[in-house]
Specification:
The complex is a heterodimer of chains A (about 625) and B (about 240).
Chain A: H1 42-46, E1 51-53, E2 62-64, H2 69-78, E3 84-93, E4 103-111, E5 119-125, E6 131-133, H3 142-153, E7 156-158, H4 230-245, E8 254-258, E9 270-276, E10 279-286, H5 294-300, H6 306-311, H7 318-333, H8 341-370, H9 375-395, E11 404-405, E12 408-409, H10 417-441, H11 444-450, H12 458-463, H13 469-472, H14 480-483, H15 504-528, E13 548-556, E14 559-567, E15 573-579, H16 581-585, H17 589-593, H18 601-608, H19 612-616
Parallel strand pairs in A: 2-5, 6-7
Antiparallel strand pairs in A: 1-2, 3-4, 4-5, 8-9, 9-10, 11-12, 13-14, 14-15
Chain B: H1 9-12, H2 32-41, H3 53-62, E1 85-89, H4 97-106, E2 112-116, H5 117-122, E3 144-146, H6 153-168, E4 190-191, E5 195-196, H7 201-206, H8 223-237
The chains are: A alpha+beta (about 625), B mainly alpha (about 240).
């Protein structure tokens, strides 16, 4: 246990207390005392006993003691107006050296829905008894994020009504993101690995595993007695939720599973739905069918090795993912990594093209869910292909672009590409977007199946941490590009698209609006793009990032895409977390669907626009 | 092997049987195998089944620019009962593999599997992950592997043409679905403390635990929550 002792004024003193440092071997600088007497934060003044400034160099925000967490959160939400819980994640500060400090940390990043910077606070708890009070009734958007922290870190959230594993299955042995949990194919702590050809003999990791597979089992397991426990628990909780909805009516209810293999679940996503007739009384999303351990692998990779992995998060908009990661790491690296002017423009152009291609796809497939099977999607895909051509010409790949670097982009635009983009954004796409608008927006079916379906009020949208088009369609004009500008977005003239009904129809309309705004940004960016360098300094093989933490976020096509990274000054990230908009937007799905007809479930899901690579990571 | 892409009579005519030129479009002397295979190769119905990134490229392949319909494969079936081909398009995870095996078992013969992309073929960039199956072929038999991350639509089309070539080589006297007896279903893996393949029961019981070679720290701290998890299913079972 570290610094739970109330020490009212610790901000000026040296952190003599065991400043937990990522990993014991300490290449990080020996924590020079923060020179200036730091001004007390709002929270410290209010809760002098329970809150103190995080004194570790490179860290921001306050450390809150676990027993006061709920009071602090309540105060932050109601009096300080930080009503949007952007990210909740855990970090395992682990050291296997004797006498070294080890603890679990839960980090909260909050924003105001009116815009502005972040408020960060964290809770530190011991590793072997990690219990943190749940914030689910203060910030309902904490629901899935707390379940994820329980699943991957084994942090128990006291008061969470449905604390089941979310990405792995119930019954899986261990909490895999803990630093002392090793996977079956574990080779070495950090990449790049040593030689895999010792004495000229190549080896494969399979040969070193007793099962020849990526599996490991507890000692003495009799496999024939193992049964699955995940589904009974799920149905039990589903029934509990259903009772809350209709306590007094006694009708026979049925459970229907949609997915993971279902023609319209947008990937391997499963919804367990409890029905009373055709009315939904409870719905639980089940995910993790594409959980490919992005974060665990990311903490073993070097910093730059993670760039191609971010492509595979939201695989429809890889450039935006690159953007978010680059921004987070550059934030930590400081001004020396600021990209040159031309690179900034290229980044914006690529990110907005990505938004176009993503929204085209989203509209096409939403119409698929509405019953217009594949025809609108084919039109949309045709336009998307033209954008992919530009990506392929620039980066060499249609989908997995791996284009951004820390301090710039990987290569310059090849000859002729800018002309092609110009032609697209001035000529072809405006016409095609008008065409989509003309054929779909006033369409009888789109209107009658979209209007008033899956309504989310602005208060709900904020409380459930919905982001991006889902939030803006509910009447909250929150766009990270405006609310907390990054890169060079403050130079462009564009409107934050907003719609006010919060239904499926508005979530469709908002994407049409955003397509048009993206075109506006693109038109300005193409006009203004300067010549010059595309990279600050040389493109290094490996970078070192100063110790500390950073949370970088961008407005991805699906919403706020954030990266929370912790560095211990070495060549690999100590913690690498992705705040995935698709994942957190799903928190509100249950609210959207309960009370509606089963036929609208898929439409509601389609209107959120999820990508499973990002949901499950 | 046929060289013509359009099916007409001359495409199936056996070598050595000369047809008068005016009859070549209409009459052929051929074998049953050829007729059977021609029917199969031009109507491979894939299952509408996507796992990850590769599924997006699969959809693009089916869309207008690459146009899967040219191969008679545009009829994507949402039900495994109506499909001939499973395109495993994306990372296969341990949580998903029971469903994939179930879907495979539900497909009627003749059935084919195309493993699309690096992940499905061998785990790909995510191979080391704790929830990732390193290759779908550890559980179901694969006919064609398509490399790439993700494979471009062209690459997928090439893979499908390879599958057609494979079908051309079949003979109705030898294929497994015309043999006597039932084809046994593949046992569905179980999600225990880790994924358990029923075919590996003996191996799991007898193999020395992985702890012997993994240099992991003894880790006294997390023992409590970690140990609780595997104990639960074992206890409830008996």
């Amino acid at each position: 246990m570290t610094d739970q002792t109330p020490k009212p004024d610790s901000s000026a003193t040296t952190p003599a207390a065991p400043t937990p440092k990522p990993e014991s071997s300490a290449t990080a600088p020996a924590a020079p005392p923060q020179a200036a007497p730091v001004e007390k934060s709002e929270l410290e003044k209010k809760f002098p006993d329970a809150v103190k400034r995080d004194a570790r160099p490179g860290y921001e925000g306050d450390v809150v003691s676990a027993d006061k967490l709920r009071d602090v959160a309540m105060y932050v939400r109601d009096d300080l107006d930080y009503d949007f819980l952007s990210s909740l994640t855990a970090v395992d500060y682990f050291s296997d050296l004797p006498n070294a400090a080890s603890h679990m940390e839960v980090v909260y990043h909050l924003y105001k829905s009116t815009g502005g910077g972040s408020l960060v606070f964290r809770v530190q708890v011991p590793r072997d008894n990690a219990v943190v009070p749940s914030l689910i009734d203060i910030y309902p958007g904490a629901d899935f994020q707390e379940r994820e922290a329980w699943d991957l870190y084994g942090i128990r959230f006291d008061g969470h009504p449905d604390l089941r594993r979310i990405l792995m299955w119930e019954g899986f042995a261990g909490h895999p993101m803990r630093k002392d949990w090793k996977e079956a194919y574990f080779e070495e702590e950090l990449k790049p690995y040593k030689n895999r050809w010792p004495e000229g003999q190549v080896y494969r990791i399979e040969d070193r595993n007793p099962y020849g597979k990526n599996n490991k089992y507890p000692q003495g397991l009799n496999p024939e007695t193992v049964t699955e426990t995940a589904d009974p628990l799920l149905y039990e909780n589903l029934e509990k939720a259903a009772r809350e909805y209709s306590e007094d009516i006694d009708t026979e209810q049925v459970v229907v599973n949609l997915g993971p293999q279902h023609p319209s679940t947008h990937g391997v996503f499963r919804m367990a739905v409890r029905l009373d007739g055709e009315t939904i009384v409870a719905l639980k999303p089940v995910m993790g069918y594409l959980h490919r351990n992005h974060e665990k692998i990311g903490e073993r990779n070097t910093w730059i090795m993670n760039m191609p992995f971010t492509d595979r998060l939201d695989y429809l908009s890889s450039m935006s993912n690159n953007f978010g990661y680059a921004i987070a790491v550059e934030k930590l690296m400081g001004p020396k990594a600021a990209p040159p002017e031309r690179a900034e423009y290229i980044r914006v152009i690529m990110a907005e093209l990505t938004r176009l291609s993503n929204h085209l796809w989203a509209i096409g497939f939403l119409l698929n869910d509405l019953g217009a099977f594949f025809t609108p999607a084919l039109y949309a895909i045709t336009e998307r292909e033209l954008i992919l051509d530009i990506f392929e010409a620039t980066t060499g790949s249609r989908m997995m672009c791996n284009y951004f670097r820390f301090g710039g982009v990987a290569r310059d635009l090849p000859a002729g590409v800018l002309e092609k983009i110009k032609d697209l954004v001035h000529e072809r796409l405006p016409r095609k977007i008008d065409e989509l608008d003309l054929y779909l927006t006033e369409n009888e079916l789109v209107r009658s199946r979209g209007e008033g379906v899956g309504v989310i009020t602005p208060e709900q949208a904020i409380a459930y941490s919905a982001a991006g088009p889902v939030l803006r369609a509910s009447g909250v004009p929150y766009d990270v590009r405006r609310a907390d500008p990054y890169s060079i977005y403050d130079r462009f003239d564009f409107d934050v698209a907003v719609r006010y009904h919060g239904d499926v129809y508005d979530r469709y309309m908002i994407r049409i609006d955003e397509l048009r705004q993206s075109l506006r940004i693109l038109q300005q960016a193409i006009k203004g793009i300067p010549g010059g360098e595309i990279m600050t300094g040389k493109n290094p093989y490996q970078i070192r990032v100063p110790a500390g933490e950073a949370y970088g976020r961008v407005e991805g096509p699906k919403g706020e895409l954030g990266y929370y990274i912790v560095s211990n000054g070495k060549a690999n990230p100590y913690r690498y977390h992705v705040r995935a908009p698709s994942f957190i937007n799903l928190t509100v799905l249950e609210k959207m669907c309960v009370g509606q007809k089963v036929a609208d479930v898929v439409v509601n899901l389609g209107s959120i626009d999820i990508v499973l690579g990002e949901v499950d990571r | 092997m046929t060289t013509e892409t359009r099916p007409n009579a001359s495409a199936v005519n056996n070598a050595g049987y000369d047809m008068p030129p005016e009859m070549r479009q209409n009459v052929a002397i051929t074998t049953l195998d050829k007729i059977w295979n021609m029917g199969r190769r031009y109507s491979v119905w894939p299952m509408m089944f996507g796992l990850a990134c590769c599924a997006i490229e699969m959809i693009c392949t089916a869309a207008s620019r690459y146009d899967l319909a040219r191969f008679g494969m545009e009829v994507m079936r949402p039900s495994p009962r109506q499909s001939d081909l499973m395109i495993v398009s994306g990372t296969v995870t341990k949580k998903m593999i029971p469903q994939i095996v179930r879907l495979y078992n539900q497909m009627p013969e003749p059935k084919y599997v195309l493993s699309m992309g690096a992940c499905a073929s061998g785990g790909g960039p995510f191979k080391e992950g704790y929830n990732v199956v390193s290759g779908v072929d550890q559980y179901i038999p694969v006919d064609v592997y398509v490399p790439g991350c993700p494979p471009t639509p062209q690459a997928l089309l090439h893979g499908l043409m390879k599958l057609q070539e494979k079908i051309d080589g079949e003979s109705i006297t030898k294929v497994r679905w015309y043999q006597k007896g039932e084809i046994p279903a593949i046992p569905v893996p179980i999600l225990g403390p880790d994924i358990i393949d029923p075919r590996d029961y003996a191996l799991i019981r007898e193999a020395k635990p992985a702890a012997a070679q993994a240099p992991a720290a003894p880790a006294a701290a997390p023992a409590a929550p970690v140990a609780a998890a595997p104990a639960a299913p074992a206890g409830t079972a008996s």
